[in-house]
Design a protein that fits this description.
alpha/beta; 39% helix; Rossmann fold; 2 domains; six-stranded parallel β-sheet
C-alpha cells in the first residue's frame, strides 16, 4: 500500500456507509442522505447506530467504521467530516487516540457540534478496549477536562448518543437556561423539575401576564399554573388546553427553553412545530411510552381513548421535529441534559458559534 501510495482503513472494521453513493455496510440501510457524520472505532456500534438511527428518522452524510486504524485513523476522519459541507453534526465512538495534540487542534477549529462516546474510562473498560482494537484509552479526568474546555458533547451509551444527535440536528441558539416544564401527568412534572436542576438548568419564573392567561384554560383542580405547569389528565382529551398552554408558556419572555412531558407522542406535535416557527427556542419532548412501539399492542378500549401515531410514521415525524429544533427523548433526564447541552454549546467561549 505504501509503495503505491494507497491509504488503508482498518483492519477489523466495517468500512464506509455513504447513502449518496449507495456505499453501505448492508443492502437494507437507507439510501436517503442526512446531516449526521459518524466515526466509530467499533464496527458493531456503527451497525447498531445505523439501525437505531432508522427508527428515529436520522439520516447519515457518511458513517465510518475504522477499527484498528493501521493507517487512516480517528483524527483523519474527524478532519474530513469537519470540512464536509454535507455534515452538520459529528458523532463519535472512541476507544483510544494516537495523537492527542492533533485532536485538540481539530476540535478547536471545527465549528460543528461534536458528540463523543468515549469508552475505556475504567480499568476494566480500558483492558477490554486494548483487547478489542489494541487501543490505549488514556486518563478519564484528562478527557473530561478536554470535553468541558472545548465544548464537546460527552455521552455514555447508545440511548444518550441518539438523544444528543437529535438535539443537534438543528439546535436553536440560546443565551440563558431558564426552562419551563409542561406536563400532563403530575408526578413526572416533579421528576422533571429534579432532572432540570440536576442538569444545571433553572426553572423559569413566568410573567404575571402569562400566569393570568393560563388561568383562562387550565382547570383549578388537579393542576398547577406555576412552573412546572401541570395541565392535568384533562389535556389528553382537550386539545385546546394543550395548544394554548404551549403558546402562552413558549412565548413568555422569561422562558428560554421548553421541556414537555407527554404520556405518548400524538398528532398534536404539529402544534409545537407551528409554535416553533414563531419562538425559535430549544424544545425537548419526553414520550413516556416508547415512540417506536406500535400502539396497536393496546386493547381497543385504550386505543379509542388516546389518539396515537402508528409506529411506521414515527421516523418521519421525529425527523420533521428535529429539523425544527425539537428533540424527542425517552426520559426527563435525557431531555433536560439535551437542553443544557444546547445552552453550553452556544455559550462556551472556546467554540464561538454565536
Amino acid at each position: 500500500a505504501q509503495k503505491y501510495q494507497m491509504r488503508l482503513i482498518g483492519p477489523n472494521c466495517m468500512g464506509f456507509y455513504c447513502p449518496e453513493t449507495k456505499l453501505s455496510f448492508f443492502p437494507a440501510l437507507p439510501t436517503e442522505s442526512g446531516p449526521l457524520g459518524l466515526i466509530s472505532q467499533s464496527g458493531s456500534i456503527a451497525n447498531i447506530m445505523a439501525f437505531s438511527a432508522m427508527l428515529k428518522g436520522i439520516h447519515f452524510s457518511k458513517s465510518i467504521s475504522y477499527g484498528n486504524s493501521i493507517d487512516l485513523g480517528f483524527n483523519d476522519f474527524l478532519e474530513y467530516l469537519g470540512d464536509d459541507p454535507k455534515t452538520r453534526v459529528i458523532a463519535c465512538y472512541v476507544e483510544g487516540l494516537k495523537d492527542g495534540r492533533r485532536f485538540i487542534e481539530l476540535v478547536k477549529k471545527i465549528k460543528k457540534p461534536i458528540i463523543i462516546w468515549k469508552v475505556g474510562v475504567t480499568p476494566a473498560g480500558s483492558k477490554a478496549a486494548h483487547s478489542h482494537t489494541g487501543s490505549l484509552c488514556g486518563n478519564n479526568t484528562l478527557w473530561d477536562t478536554i470535553f468541558n474546555q472545548y465544548g464537546l458533547i460527552r455521552v455514555y451509551n447508545l440511548e444518550e448518543m441518539v438523544s444528543m444527535i437529535q438535539t443537534f440536528i438543528n439546535p436553536m441558539p440560546v443565551r440563558a437556561r431558564r426552562v419551563a416544564i409542561i406536563s400532563g401527568p403530575g408526578g413526572p412534572a416533579v421528576s422533571s423539575a429534579d432532572a432540570c436542576e440536576m442538569n444545571n438548568l433553572t426553572l423559569a419564573d413566568m410573567t404575571e401576564d402569562s400566569k393570568m392567561q393560563l388561568k383562562e384554560y387550565i382547570p383549578e383542580f388537579g393542576s398547577s399554573m406555576s412552573n412546572p405547569i401541570d395541565i392535568s389528565l384533562q389535556s389528553t382529551f382537550d386539545p385546546v388546553l394543550e395548544k394554548k398552554t404551549y403558546e402562552i408558556v413558549g412565548s413568555d419572555p422569561n422562558v428560554d427553553m421548553l421541556l414537555i412531558y407527554l404520556t405518548m407522542l400524538t398528532p398534536r406535535y404539529k402544534d409545537l412545530i407551528q409554535l416553533q416557527e414563531r419562538i425559535s427556542k430549544p424544545i425537548a419532548i419526553v414520550s413516556a411510552l416508547d415512540v417506536n412501539v406500535s400502539q396497536d399492542s393496546f386493547n381497543k378500549n385504550v386505543q379509542r381513548s388516546f389518539i396515537h401515531i402508528r409506529a411506521k410514521k414515527v421516523p418521519s415525524i421525529i425527523n420533521e421535529l428535529n429539523q425544527n429544533g425539537i428533540s424527542v427523548h425517552p426520559n426527563e433526564n435525557l431531555a433536560s441534559k439535551a437542553l443544557y447541552r444546547i445552552y453550553n454549546y452556544y455559550n462556551n467561549p472556546k467554540k464561538s458559534v454565536l
